[in-house]
Design goal:
Order of helices and strands: HHEHHHHHHHHHEHHHHHHHHHHH
CATH superfamily of the largest domain: MetI-like
CATH architecture of the largest domain: Orthogonal Bundle
Low-confidence stretches: 250-258, 342-348, 523-532
Radius of gyration: 24 Å
Mean pLDDT: 79
Helix content: over 70%
Structural class: mainly alpha
Oligomer: single chain
Strand content: under 5%
CATH class of the largest domain: Mainly Alpha
CATH topology of the largest domain: MetI-like fold
Number of domains: 2
Length: 532
């Protein structure tokens, strides 16, 4: 897809035009620290999401313990929070004047705000905790699906041979779910690379934050483009690591019909520990930040009423997200249909298949990086059409540029989902339609579309939600004086007026809850890989 490749090509061109005057400063003062903190953040978040996501998925899939049924759906709830919303909430929760430390001082009779030396949330470990507790459901969903659809026979055989507990998990469960764990971890790490708000709020200067600072603070678009290319190397490394994890599939096997593994009842003590292990990430990833947002938003509304511009923020967010969704879905449907090979799975078009796979690369492109690339590209186009303003409007600084960024970033969600949904449409259906003279367009509209409606509607909701939550691209590309919920929250947090932004943050969480309900009711994860 040309639009997907456009930001990358524009970044390369802009980076090559840089004079190099900024690089001595970047190499000496910016890049070493940013590279180290980015690597440590990725390693920390990766360890948290794999450990928590895999462990909780194993427990709720294979054992019976108090609260298991509630945890099975509650462990998905943190996905409703964007990482920057959770960071925003935790900053005020753990602030010396926040509810945690104020409550502890009141109980202990202390007056000094620094009398209780709690861990500093504005730190690399704090950022790892906050982001890991929000992103672990990617691994949880993928690993649990693997345990439920592939695990029954293998686990039963392992138990019959005397394996159990940790040995059963290490010898059978973990190797079986390794590809799914790798896929979920890959998505979580890509989201970590895409983040700007959480890292900046929590004092972690990542490479992605450095792109934003270099362009905005130092007014060097070329320097930002050069750092962005370094981030693309990290993206490639994450994708290679995910592919390596998928390839080492061990004992994975496919089954036609899923059957849940036999649930073993844990003794009371171990059952309570299992429940505690599942409860902690739900509290840290969802319950605590959402409770704070409800408290802070209610205080703000009771004292001052709703923010005057809240309606405009919601309207701007919803309008831009709806336009992007309406443009993305038809394009994804055409890509998935073309990759089917003229409605014949056994004659899949190689070119169309490659186009579909190329569209998936946009999801791996961090929003801020895509935004910088589009700024460069649209700036060049505006220079070329400067004398044609009456007939060719400028693109830079317009809603059009932002919608294009959403298109590039989120086309992969419905493209991958629809391609996976086509697996369930038997080729005999297409053969029957073709034998009666139906052309490809009629087959798509009258035969495939009704069968694809569940996947299409789920994809629409997911694209709309992701566009509503997207911060880096929106922050860089939005028209001047047009705030969305995400940028309004970012602005309030940057000014330190946390209660002012609580209403916007809570609105973003409420938008995400229907998607979580869809996932709990049987929907699939955000993006599925296309068929090989």
């Amino acid at each position: 897809m040309a639009l997907v490749a456009l930001p990358v090509v524009a970044l390369a061109v802009a980076a090559s035009r840089g004079s190099g005057d900024l690089w001595p400063h970047l190499i000496r003062y910016v890049l070493p620290q940013a590279a180290v903190e980015t690597a440590l953040l990725l390693a920390g978040v990766g360890a948290v999401v794999v450990g928590v996501g895999t462990g909780t998925a194993w427990l709720v899939s294979c054992y019976r313990f108090p609260g298991r049924k509630a945890f099975a759906w509650a462990l998905v709830l943190p996905l409703a929070l964007p990482t920057y919303v959770s960071a925003y909430a935790w900053l005020d929760v753990m602030h010396p004047a926040g509810p945690v430390q104020s409550g502890l001082r009141a109980v202990l009779g202390l007056a000094d705000p620094r009398a209780i030396p709690l861990p500093e949330i504005r730190s690399l470990p704090g950022c790892v905790m906050v982001m890991g507790m929000v992103l672990f459901p990617y691994v949880y969903l993928a690993a649990r699906a693997a345990f439920l659809t592939q695990g029954a026979d293998l686990l039963r055989a392992g138990r019959g041979l005397g394996s159990g507990g940790l040995r059963l998990f290490l010898s059978i469960g973990l190797p079986m779910a390794r590809p799914a764990i790798a896929a979920g971890a890959g998505l979580a790490l890509l989201e970590t690379l895409n983040d700007v708000g959480a890292a900046e709020f929590l004092g972690v200067r990542t490479l992605t934050v450095s792109v934003y600072v270099t362009w905005i603070t130092r007014s060097s678009l070329e320097g930002a483009a050069q750092i962005a290319l370094l981030i693309l190397l990290l993206v490639a490394a994450v994708l290679l690591l995910e592919g390596w994890g998928r390839s080492r599939s061990g004992g994975t096997h496919a089954v036609r019909e899923s059957a849940e593994p036999d649930l073993r009842t844990l003794p009371l003590g171990r059952g309570l520990l299992a429940g505690l292990f599942c409860l902690v990430p739900v509290l840290l990833g969802f319950a605590v930040p959402v409770s704070y947002l409800l408290w802070a938003a209610s205080r703000r509304v009771l004292e001052f009423g709703l923010p005057h511009d809240l309606g405009a923020w919601i309207g701007n967010s919803a309008l831009l997200s709806a336009i992007a969704t309406l443009l993305i879905l038809p394009a994804a449907l055409v890509l998935a249909f073309g990759a089917r090979g003229e409605a014949m799975p056994d004659r899949r078009s190689m070119v169309d298949g490659l186009l579909l796979r190329a569209s998936l690369l946009g999801y791996a492109l961090p929003g801020g990086i895509a935004a910088v690339g589009l700024i460069v590209a649209f700036g060049g186009l505006d220079d070329l059409t400067e004398g044609l303003g009456r007939w060719v409007p400028a693109l830079s600084g317009t809603a059009t540029a932002l919608v294009v960024a959403y298109f590039v970033r989120f086309l992969a969600i419905p493209a991958g989902g629809l391609d996976a949904a086509y697996v369930r449409i038997r080729p005999q259906i297409d053969w029957s339609a073709r034998s009666m003279g139906a052309r490809p367009g009629r087959i798509l509209g009258r035969v495939h579309l009704p069968l694809l409606l569940p996947a299409l509607s789920a994809s629409a909701l997911l694209v709309f939600l992701d566009a509503m939550k997207e911060l880096p691209a929106t922050l860089l590309l939005r028209p001047f004086n047009r705030e969305t919920l995400a940028t309004a929250l970012y602005a309030e947090a940057a000014r330190g007026t946390y209660e002012e932004g609580a209403v916007a943050a809570l609105a973003l969480v409420l938008v995400g809850l229907p998607v979580i309900a869809l996932l709990v009711a049987g929907g699939r994860p955000r993006m599925q890989a296309p068929r090989p």
